[in-house]
Amino acid sequence: MINKTEFKKIRKELEDFEVKREEVITQSREIIRLSKQIIYSLHRNNIKEATRYVKEIKFRVKKLPKEHYDVNFNKIAFQEYVEAIAYYEFFKNKKIPDRKYLRVSTEDYLLGLCDLTGELVRKAVNSAINKDYKQVFDIKELVSDIYEEFLKFNLRNSELRNKMDSIKWNLRKLEDLVLDIKVKNRK
Prior knowledge:
By secondary structure, this protein is mainly alpha-helical. It folds into 2 domains: 1-96, Methane Monooxygenase Hydroxylase, Chain G, domain 1 (Up-down Bundle), CATH 1.20.58.2140; 105-187, Methane Monooxygenase Hydroxylase, Chain G, domain 1. 82% of the residues lie in helices and 0% in strands. It contains 7 helices and no strands. The chain has helices at residues 4-43, 47-63, 73-93, 99-102, 106-129, 133-151, 159-186. The longest helix has 40 residues, at 4-43.
């Protein structure tokens, strides 16, 4: 009446799926952890340590499957990767890598850039505290450029649209910071 061989195959497929799913979750968590380490190292101006983490994260991202296996962990990992490497490249070379260089989807790239602006605000505040005003102005200019490009999109209500709003608020914080610096330096 029922094909037991077929059900045996299905059980095997489901078991294999679960194994792959767990692997993606584990790999994604490691990439997310490394992303945070890169950013934290750069906030402490430890470029040597950040560079070591960058090498490791690039190796791990290459191995991370693009398939979702019913989890969004790898999407989050790709976004965190974009944020961390973009921050690293800005810190080191004053450039933001493109999605081709990073080998990520358009959505993951854009979401990562949105998150990047929050880290840039943090860096700008620390730079202002250390009286590195040029860095503050450079960061404000970069976030302004990112926001200008996002304004050219016609985004629907989505995660990307919501994160785009965060760019606007981060830019506002930077504009206030730049204004404070300019006012205080006139006195």
